[in-house]
Amino acid sequence: MVVGEMAHERDVIIIGGGPGGYHAAIRASQLGKKVTLIEKEDLGGVCLNKGCIPSKVLTQQASRWKQIERAADMGFIVESLSLNNEKKNAYRARIISELRKGVENLCKANKVEIIKGTAFFLSENRVGVEHGERYDIFQFQQAIIATGSTPERWQGISFDGNRILDKWSISFLPTIPEHLVIHGSDVISLEMAMAYKTLGAEVTIIPNRESLEFGFDSSIDREIKRIFKKEKITIIKESYFLNALPLENGVQVIYFSNGLEKSLDCSHLFISTPNKPNTEALGLERLGVKMENDGCIWVDSKCRTSITGIFAIGDATEGHGLAVKAIKQGKVAAEVICGLPSEVDLRFLPQVVHTIPPIATVGLTEEAALQEGYVVRTSQLPLSSNGFAALSGKKDGFMKIISEQSTDVILGIHFIGEGAVELISSGTLLLEMAAREEDLTFSLQPHPSLNEALLEAGEQLKEMAIHLAPKNHHEKVKQ
Amino acid sequence: MVVGEMAHERDVIIIGGGPGGYHAAIRASQLGKKVTLIEKEDLGGVCLNKGCIPSKVLTQQASRWKQIERAADMGFIVESLSLNNEKKNAYRARIISELRKGVENLCKANKVEIIKGTAFFLSENRVGVEHGERYDIFQFQQAIIATGSTPERWQGISFDGNRILDKWSISFLPTIPEHLVIHGSDVISLEMAMAYKTLGAEVTIIPNRESLEFGFDSSIDREIKRIFKKEKITIIKESYFLNALPLENGVQVIYFSNGLEKSLDCSHLFISTPNKPNTEALGLERLGVKMENDGCIWVDSKCRTSITGIFAIGDATEGHGLAVKAIKQGKVAAEVICGLPSEVDLRFLPQVVHTIPPIATVGLTEEAALQEGYVVRTSQLPLSSNGFAALSGKKDGFMKIISEQSTDVILGIHFIGEGAVELISSGTLLLEMAAREEDLTFSLQPHPSLNEALLEAGEQLKEMAIHLAPKNHHEKVKQ
Question: Are A52 and B84 an interchain contact pair (Cβ–Cβ within 8 Å)?
Fold first, then answer.
C-alpha cells in the first residue's frame, strides 16, 4: 500500500465521539471546517452510553421514587408503590437511544462525517483507521484526540458486570440489589449509594481513604454524612478495601478495619476505580507527543499538544474527568483550529452530585481558600430557614459562601439541598464575573423561592440575613 | 387625653407586618434601631397567610401530584393515587403556621416590638394605635408604611369565599372544585388554573382582556396557551366577563363573546380582581402625603414619601404587587433610615409563575426591547434539545434570550420549563452585572443539566448552539 496515493484529505479529524469529541466536531463544522469524527463504538461515548446519562437516569428515578414515597406528607394517598424492573430499564434504554440518535442527527445536520472505526497516528498529519474489513488513511490539517478514559481494572478482582461492578456497569443492574457494597467516595459512589438505597437496597460504603472525606468543602462533607446516616446508608470508617471474592449468590468483601481483617457478604459490589486515559493504542509515542506522568496527554490552555496541529481534550488530558471539561475543551479546540482566540479556563468548574438532596459547588472551598492565603469571610444558611424549602418539604441542606474579607470578592459557593444544581449557575457566573458580595445582595430574588437562600447566604457574610436569628440568639449552624 | 404627655417614644415605627414590613423591621434592628412593628392581623401579612405561601403550597402539591401521576413513565407502578382533602389542607395550615411562628421568633430575636393593632397618623411624627380596648400614641423618628393592598370587590358580585372566590380565598378551597371558572389572566390565575386542573378540576378561563395575552414575552404567552391546551384547560377567547350569579350548588357566569351574551354554569368562580393599596384609613390626607392617582403613595428610589421621616414600601406604593419588590423596598427603607446609601432599582425584577412547567423571566421582552429602540438579537432554545430535560421526562418549554446586536449586552431572559425558577437567578445576575453574551457562553455548566440550556440559548444568539441543528436543517422553533 502506497500511503501517499491512498490518503483521503480532510480538514479536521476527531478521534472519539464522546461529549468532547462531538461538541468539537459540531463547533468546527459551524465554523466552516470539513470534519471527520472517528468513533469505534457508539456516538455520545462513555458519557451518554455508559456513564453520566445512565447514572443520571437512575438518580432521577430515585428522586421521583422519593417524591412518591413522601406523598403522604402533602395529603396524597398512594395505595401501593412498586417498581417494574423491566419498565425501569426500558426507560433508561429509551433515553440513551433517543439521545444517541439526537447526536447522530446533529452530526448529520452539521455535515460531520462519521466513521465507525479505530484510529491511530501514522505521522504528524495522517491517521490510519481500521473499520471492519477496511483500512483507510486520512490526511488532516488538524486532529483532536478525544479518546476519553476507562476505569482501571484491579488485579485479582473479577469485574463481571453482574455481581462485581465498575463505573460502566453500576447503572445497568437489571434489578435493585439486595445489599450493595460500594468501595469509593467519589461522586458516582455517592450518587449510586443514594439512588440504590432510595430504590430499596441495603447500602454499605467502604470509602477509599483513611479519613472519610468526599473532597468537598468540609461543611458539605459533614452534611453528606449526616444525611447518609439519616437514610441508613452505612459508612464503614477507617477501613481499607482488600479484596473481593465471588460467592454463589453474591460477593465476599475483604477489608481491613481497626487493625483486623474483616469480611462482609453482600449481593453486589461496586468498586469505583480511578479512570485511566485511553492514550495507549494511538501511536503517540511514535510522534513524540509530550505526555504527563499518568498517561494523560499534555496540552496548553488552547488544547494544543506538543505537536503542531494535534489537539487533545477531555479525559485523555489532565484534570477532572468531567464531561463539562471535555465539552469546554472540545469547543475551544475547534475554535482555536478555526482561528478564534479561545482558551480553556477551568477555575470555575462546577461540580454536581445527584444525591437526594443534590450537591453543587463551584470555586474555592474554605480550606482551599485559607491554604491559598486568603483571609476569608464565610456564611452558612440552612435551608430550614427558607420558606420555599419548607413548603415543598425539602429543608435538608444549606448554602455556604466564602468571600475575601478585604475585597468582598466571592471565592466559592457550596450548596447541598433542593435546587442546588440549577442555582449553581448563579455561583459560576458570580465567580466568573469576579462579583463582590454586594453584586449578590443587591439582586432581586423571587419570593418565595430557593433562590432567596442564595441571596441570604450572601447577606449573611455580613451577618445580615433576615431569616437567621442574630448570633447571640441562635446556636450557630454546627461547623 | 393630652397627646404630648401620653406619647411613647420609638425610633422606627413600621405599619404592616407583611414581607416588606418584617424585612424592614429586622433590617433596621440589625442596624441598631429600636423598632416597633404594628400589625392588625397576623405577622407575615397577606403574602404568608393568604397569598404567596398558600398558593405556592397548592402549586407544589399539584406539582407533586403530577410527578406521581407520571410515575409509570419511569417504570413505577402506583396502584391507586387519591387525595385526602383533610390532610392536604392540614399540610397548608401547618406550613403557614410554622412560617408565621418563624417570623414571630425572628422578630423577637431581633428585639422588634410587635403591637397588634390598627395605626393611623396623627402628625408627621406621631401615630395613634388602637389595639383592643387600648389606644396608644407613639412618637417616632421614622415611620414606614407597609400596609399592602386588598383585592378589589366588584359591585354586584358576592365574593362569599365559598363559591365565588378572590385572590385571598382561592388557595383555601376545602375540596377540589368540580368545575372552576377563572376570570383573569395574571400570574395567580395561571397558577390556580394549572394547580386545580392537575388536581382534578375542570378549568375554564375567561381572560380579562380582549386579546388574550398574559403579559410575558409573546413567545412565552404562546407556549402557555399550547401547554394549557395540551392539559385541556379551556380558554374562552374574545370574551368579556359580565356578571356572576349564585346558583344553589354553584355559580352562573355571564359573559359576552362573539357579539352574544352567554352563560356558563360552574361549581366555583375565581375572579382575580386587581389589588388596591391599603392607604385610605391611615390619615395620610391630613399630612398631605403626596399620592399617585390610583391611591398609591408616591415614593422616591429611597422609599421616602413627600413627608420627611415617613417612608412607604410594597403594595402601598406604585409598581408590581410582588413580595420581592416589597422585600427590597423594606430593606432599602430600613437602610436609608440607618444612614446607608441604599436605593431601590427594580429594572431586573424577576417574575415567576408556578405553573407546570414553571415560568420565570427577567429583563426586557423582545417586544419591549424593540419598543425601546434596541436593535436586538434573539435566540430560543427548546428544552427538547436538552439531555437532562429528556432524561427527567420534562421537555416542555424553552429558554429565550434577547441581546443588543451592537453591544452583545443581554437585555432579557425568559424561561418556561423545568428549573426555570432556580435558573432565573443566573439571568438576574447577568442583567444586573450588564453581562454580554460571552459572559454567559464562556461559563462552564454541569453536564447533563438544565443549566446547559441557558448556556446554549446564549450560544444560539450567534447560532452556535451545539444541540440545535443549523437553520437550513431544522424547522425553526415556531415564533
Answer: no
Q: C-alpha B168: how far from its chain's center?
A: 13
Interchain proximity B443–A464, CB inside 8 Å = no
CATH of A357-460, one of 3.30.470.20, 3.30.70.1140, 3.40.50.2000, 3.30.390.30: 3.30.390.30
Which residues in B lie closer than 8 A to residue A76 (C-beta atoms)? 61, 64-65, 68, 81-84, 88
Q: What percent of chain A has pLDDT over 90?
A: 92
Q: Between residues 217 and 236 of chain B, which touch chain A (CB distance below 8 Å)?
A: none
pLDDT at residue number A2: 46
Nearest Cα of chain B lies from the Cα of A288 at a distance, in angstroms, of 32
How many angstroms separate the CA atoms of A466 and B312, rounded?
A: 19
What residues of chain B lie within 8 A of the CB of A440, using their CB?
429
All residues of chain B having their beta carbon less than 8 Å from the beta carbon of residue A451 are: 421-422, 424-425
Whether residues B110 and A390 touch (CB distance < 8 A) is answered with: no
Is residue A4 very low, low, confident or very high in pLDDT (cuts 50, 70, 90)? very low
Q: Return the CATH class of domain B357-473.
A: alpha beta
CB atoms within 10 A of CB A128: 20
Identify the CATH assignment for B3-151+276-337 out of 3.50.50.60, 3.40.630.30, 3.20.20.150, 3.40.50.2300: 3.50.50.60
Pairing of strands B76-78, A35-39: unpaired
Task: Determine contact: A95 vs chain B, CB below 8 A.
Answer: yes
Query: Of A462, A451, A386, which is closest to residue B335 (Cα–Cα)?
Result: A462
Report whether the peptide linkage leading into residue A151 is cis, meaning its omega lies within 30 degrees of zero: no
Q: Do A52 and B448 touch (CB under 8 A)?
A: yes
Secondary structure class of B12 (helix, strand, coil): strand
**Grid coordinates of B416:** 418556561
**From B52, B390, B466, residue closest to A26, measured CB to CB:** B466
Start and end residues for every CATH 3.30.390.30 domain found in chain B:
357-473
Interface ipTM above 0.90: yes
Determine the residue type at B434.
Answer: A
Q: How many other C-beta atoms can be found within 10 angstroms of the C-beta atom of residue B109?
A: 17
Average pLDDT across chain B, whole number: 95
Whether A447 is catalytic is yes
Q: What is the CATH number that goes with domain B164-273?
A: 3.50.50.60
pLDDT tens track for A157-207: 999 999 999 999 999 999 999 999 999 999 999 999 999 999 999 999 999
CA A167 to chain centre: 12
Q: CB count, 10 Å around CB of A126?
A: 18
Over the stretch A378-411, which tens digit does the pLDDT of each residue have?
999 999 999 999 999 999 999 999 999 999 999 9
Please give the distance of CA A174 from its chain centroid, rounded to a whole number.
23
CB A457 within 8 A of CB A379: yes
Residue A291 forms contact with B (CB below 8 Å): no
Q: Which of these, B214, B206, B188, lies nearest to B252 by C-alpha position? A: B206
Query: CB-CB: which of B74, B349, B444 is closest to A349?
Result: B444
C-alpha span between B175 and B173 (Å, rounded):
5
Q: Are B404 and B370 in contact (CB under 8 A)?
A: no
Using a CB–CB cutoff of 8 Å, tell me whether A430 touches chain B: yes
Three-state DSSP at A405 gives coil
Model pTM above 0.90: yes
Q: What is the mean pLDDT of residues A285-294?
A: 95
* Angle separating helix axes A420-432 and A451-460, nearest 10 degrees: 50
Contact across the interface for B448 and A53, Cβ inside 8 Å:
yes
Task: Closest CB to A324: pick one of B391, B445, B450.
Answer: B445
**Residue range(s) of every CATH 3.50.50.60 domain in chain A:** 3-151+276-337, 164-273
Q: How far apart are CA B271 and CA B274, in angstroms?
A: 9
